[in-house]
Structures are given as structure tokens and as C-alpha cells.
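pasting for ref. prot 1 ->
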Amino acid sequence: MLVDIKTQVKMLVQQVVESYLKDEMNTKKDVPIAILLSYQSSNPATVLEAVTPLLDTYNVTFLLTKEWLSFQEQMKGLSYVLIENMSQHELTAMIHQSSVLVIPQASYRLLSKLALTMDDETAVWVAVQYQLQGKPIVIASNGVEPTVYQQIHAPHTVQERIQSYIRRIQADQVKWVPLSKLVKTVDEKYAAYLDKQPLILAKHVERAYQEGLKQIEVTEKSRVTPSAKDLAREFKIQIKPIDSSKGGTI
């Protein structure tokens, strides 16, 4: 009889956990994220396999550059948009609605330009816009992080330059992780994004007034200083909370 009770309790606990996980997945399925495929890969199948689990959890938009068009066969019918064919207005609207940017295939070009905020190519411009909107970026380090043999043979100056760029983007809150940890890191960064508490200051309200805005959209957990509230009333600017889980920006 005791065994039966233990078995029943175990089954009930399992059902509760499964129900919780199912609810979590269903909730996230409405969360829009973008996966940027913009740099050539020696093994595109591995890259695509690594990001496939995200399709089960999030509402994913694949952003491709022409460099990835030759890998259409490996994409197995996944829908995508070609960013070179999108206007800046269309890209801005997509970024506005998105919550996380995932870059599963990086390059030294991306690393250096992102570290220096050089947005002279569309892929980097997209990443910089995510940064400016305070949204998480997760980049896979495979193929860019020096291997043990490169560490042995490459000049120290080259290695230090690469590491300095990596440190800089990490300081800018870009997550730099191995491809194998990509999905787990996206989940963690999205959760942290939801808990983010931006502080709205008077200078932000003043800037909004200068730009002719009638309202400022902020996440639900944002904190507004008393001076910002006073100035918003004076300038007749509405501070409007939005649901950060549906993308959006401040």
C-alpha cells in the first residue's frame, strides 16, 4: 500500500512538472526572436541543427544574407527573409517586434565591426539596432574563438586584438558562447530581458519632447523618477507601459 501511495505521488509530481513545462513552452511560442545567418559556414548543417530547438519554443524569423542562399538545401524548407531585399523601415519594424537576436555563425568581420560600432553593412547594422534598443544578442563563438593551435602559433598581438574585441562586445552585454550552449543561453537572456528594469529620467522625457513625441513606451517593470513624471505632465507626454514578452522597445 505504501508503495502505491509513493507511486501515485510520483505520478502527480510528474504531471505537474510536465504541465508547467508545457505551459512555459506555449507562452514562449508567441515570443518573436530573430536568427541572423549572414556569414559563410564550413558546416551549415551543424549550425542549423544547433538552432532547430528554438523553433519549438519561440516564434522564429530567419534573416539571411546572400552568402547563405547557397545553403537553401540544408534549410529543409524553413522560411526566411533576405535582409538585402528589405528596406531599413521593414528591418526596423521587425527589430521593434523582436525580443532576442541570435547569431549562430559569426566572423572576425562581425566581431571587429560590432566591437567598434561600425554599421556599414546590413548584418552589423541589424545587430547594432538591437543593442541600441537594449535587446539581448547571443553569438556563437565557434570559428572565431582561437583554437589551441592558433593560440600556440598566432602572433600575440593578433590574439590580443581578437580577445580585446570579444571583451568589448561582452562589456556591451552581448553574450558570446559556444554553439552547444546557444539555446540554453537564449532562454537565460530572454528571462533576464523580462526582468530588466530600465530607469526613466527627466532627460529622457526632455529628449522625447525635442523629438516631438506624444508618448514614451516603456516595459512594465520600468521605473520612472518623480522628476520624469513631473516633466511628462508638463510636456503632456504619456509614459505608456508595454508587454516586453511580445517584443517592443522603450
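and prot 2 ->
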Amino acid sequence: MYPFIFISIALHLVSFLCIVLLFLKQTKSSDVSEEIATGMEVYIEQLEEENDRLMTEVKSYVDKRENQLDTRLRVLEHGKTVSPEVEEQQKPVIIQHPSANNERNQKALQLHSQGFSVTDIARILNCGVGEVELIVNIHGRSEQR
């Protein structure tokens, strides 16, 4: 009978040890889950701050561009001159007639006759693609007449 009591006590000790180990493992996993939850909260806060900062930057950029467009529209509608400070900040686009710069026109037509594309000509002459297209189209129409 003594051996059964000894085996019973040993099994009870092993069971008690397993219960203690499982309890320790559960508290560690709850600590880990708390750390994960805390880390996620910090990450979400950082994302919200970054989003707020980005939204502020986008709004300021859009406002700036809208102001520039409003100024350009006023200049074009009323023909008013802009103060040098505003002109320096916004640099409005100046539209010139194609015949305003004959050298550039001649160079554009020469490059076009040599087979260069409109985008290449614009890049070479440091002007807009639309300007080069206009020069080439006007020259083509004047030759047809």
C-alpha cells in the first residue's frame, strides 16, 4: 500500500507543477498581448499624427495653388499688372504669339524638317510642347496657301 501512496503523492506533485507552469505561461501570454495592444495603440497614434500632418500639407498646397490660379485669372481677365512680389512668387505664364521670337520659330521649323519630334524640339529649345506644335501647325498652314 505504501507504494500506491508514494505514486499518488508523486502524481499530485507533477499535476501541481503542471498547473503552476500553465498559470505562468498564461500570465506571460497576457503580458505579451498587452504589449502588442500597447504597441498597436502607439502605432495608430503615430499614423493619425502623420495623416493629420499630411492633410495639413495638402490643404496648404491646394490653397496656394488656388491662390495662384485666382491671381492668374484676374490678370488675364482684367489685364492688370501684378506687383513684383506677387509676380516673383507666382511667376504667371506669359503667352506669346509664335511670331514673337523668329529665331526660335526658325530653329523649331528646321528641327521639325530634320525629323525631330515635337517633344524633342520643345526640350531642345526649352519651351512648351504646345508652343512647338503651334509653330509647326501655323507654318504648315502658311505653306499650304
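The first helix runs from residue 2 to 78.
The two ends are 127 Å apart (CA to CA).
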